[in-house]
Structure formats: structure tokens, C-alpha cells
Amino acid sequence: MTDRPLGISILTILTLGNSLALLLFGALLQAMPILQIIVGLFGLVVSVGFWTAKKWAWVLGIVAELLTIVSSVLLLKTDLDAFISLIIAVMVLGYLVTPDAREFFGL
Predict the structure, then answer these.
(1) pTM beyond 0.90
(2) Domain count of the fold of the chain
(3) Using alpha carbons only, how large is the chain's radius of gyration in Å?
(4) Is residue 92 one of the residues assigned to a domain?
């Protein structure tokens, strides 16, 4: 494992923050609270894997961000905050496929 790139640290913080927001606010205020809780918990697990450079975290990260994108798009009509989650998920997904990120995860 190489030193953690700054992008991974930022990615971890964004994923963690987005997941906590989904759990705290999404579950209370959203039209689909169960989906938000599942996606939020999944994101928390992925955040830990990102920080510890686990290979499984890269794969789960891709899945988590795709789930976040889908759930955010479904909620855009009823919740403008979903737009923020959508933007963060797209940024995280975009970074995960960069060569630096793939190298950090040993891919």
C-alpha cells in the first residue's frame, strides 16, 4: 500500500458525510426512508474500507455511489437536497476510476 493520496482522504470524508446525511436526514425526511437507511449504512462501511485501502472497498464504492445516484435521481422531484447527494456521488465515482485511486487500492 502506498501513502494515501489526498483525493482518497477527500473521497472518504465526502462519502462519510454523505452517508451520515442520508442516515440522519434522509431517513427522517425522505419519501423512501428504508432505501436511504440502506444506502447510508452501506456508505459507512465503504468509507471505512476507503480509509484502510481495502480492495473490496473500491468495488463496494462503485456500487454504493451507483445506488446513491439512483436513489438521488428518484428523489429529485420531492427533495432538492438529493441534488447535493447526486453531485457528491458523481464526483466520488469519477475519482474512483482514476489511475491514482485504482493504484491505491491495488487494482
Answers:
(1) no
(2) 1
(3) 13
(4) yes
